[in-house]
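We modelled the chain as a single entity of 114 amino acids. Its sequence is:
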Amino acid sequence: MPFIRITTNKSLSLKDKTDLKTGLGQLITTLHKTEDWLMIAFDNVESDSMYFKGSNEYSAIVEISVYGTISKNDFDPMTRKTTDLLSRTIKIDPDRIYINYREVDHWGLGGSNF
């Protein structure tokens, strides 16, 4: 049950979103999860509404939530691969991409919890 939210102040085209969705669908296996259960959301904010390091230059925050726990050995490769994907796909400087992880103990779907 992974969920990935990307918030950025850079406008994303449909192609950008599709390329990111495809890439994240492949990368999620780094966390031993599959695209079969992956949900992705894109949030765009206006460039004057998102600041990082005191500047409103293009930046992004990626929030990755997974049901259960993630092996500590998987965080670094996932961060590296996700940063590379965003940097290549939507041309955001890697130093302006934050990634955080959340391990979720309780996750509901279809009216019941796992």
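As a brief sanity check on the tokenised model: The two ends are 10 Å apart (CA to CA). The chain has a mean pLDDT of 95.
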